[in-house]
């Protein structure tokens, strides 16, 4: 029987162990897509206890408005264990909330959350044991003592410990990027903290708050909009500002990928929405398509990477959406068909050589093979792997999901040019997800070598493993 999560955890062969320990483990991390607040990096926040780091929860703003910020993965684990919502997003004491999580984690055999939590406890807190209902008090005291007293356990300290070279945050076009500016001007902050352009609210013409958001964008650029291209022009102005602040990537989170290429219909849809009139699905899709094409052309012009995340069904639980709002851990995988629409989008951009470097992520693993063949149809010579099959995203971010994504890319493309993992996280302890990914990647490569499917060529293996772990992303994002 193997020891629980020892130094050779998930490394099943001698080749895998050599590749991980000699080449992958020590390389810096490029976390090019996450949701951590840049303000907390600048202010070098120190967390009071492990619950604040792991669970987050209910936040009350100065104006009395309530929002929720934390790790949705952990919230779902607790809900699956029948924990009352007051202990998850409510105002129960942090110690009690941690206890409920520890009790839930004990039941999470096979869940990636079990692995992530124990990797974090081991790396950042030196805890070699197991977190469960009985050890929760011991772990609570150990973690809180380090968080409160260890000089290396502030936000910046955690980033340094994790050997992070770049953090790509997620930022709205109307954001002033105040905290990014302060970070850039502070010579004591060595990590690159790059804003990422996330214009979803300007595209979501069919969702609540669209009109109010457009007015915010108008206020930001100092003029009123009369058409869809007015929105496009404003977004380009904001993108230029983001690029001046170090932006390297943009991101579009889509429920599904539309393609109705009709500029006149797009403007008609915009005018109807701004007048408070209902917009049909055809009109909605025309507007979103028009902005997607325009944004992609901007990204090519400014050298920005385009990320497209799709196939998520948001807020299916109407009761909990009404109670807590969006982004509180109630989303699910959607079944959509993006084969024609997404390829049509890429083809439209390719016709005029305006397709940017693009990363495609589907929340539905059934799409992996389709995307794996799609990316091979639109590659370019400006960088190896210009169009990427994105890492296993969200619910696919499991051992099986990561293996499936890598096997698909290897079968249908070039795994050696893959830009690797990201955290997509709201926690400063989540960098161990890169460790887990690197272990799985080395194990997969090691398996192929020991099965005689790839030669035991140290020079080539080193190039592949180091590339996927770090150097491919460094090249891709121009670091």
Automatic annotation (TrEMBL):
**InterPro entries recorded for this chain?**
Metal_Hydrolase, Uronate_isomerase
Does this UniProt record's set of keywords contain Isomerase?
yes
Q: Write down the SUPFAM superfamilies for this protein, in alphabetical order.
A: Metallo-dependent hydrolases
Q: Which keywords appear in this protein's UniProt record, sorted alphabetically?
A: Isomerase
Q: In which pathway does it act?
A: Carbohydrate metabolism; pentose and glucuronate interconversion
An example molecular function term from Gene Ontology annotations: glucuronate isomerase activity
Q: Does the keyword Isomerase apply?
A: yes
**EC number, UniProt record:** 5.3.1.12
**GO biological process entries:** D-galacturonate catabolic process; D-glucuronate catabolic process
Catalytic activity line of the entry: D-glucuronate = D-fructuronate; aldehydo-D-galacturonate = keto-D-tagaturonate
Task: Indicate the enzyme's highest-level EC class.
Answer: isomerase
Write one Pfam family the protein is assigned to.
UxaC
**What NCBIfam families does the annotation carry?**
PRK02925.1
Please report which protein family the annotation says this sequence is part of.
Answer: Belongs to the metallo-dependent hydrolases superfamily. Uronate isomerase family.
Q: What's the protein here called?
A: Uronate isomerase
Source organism per UniProt: Candidatus Gemmiger avicola
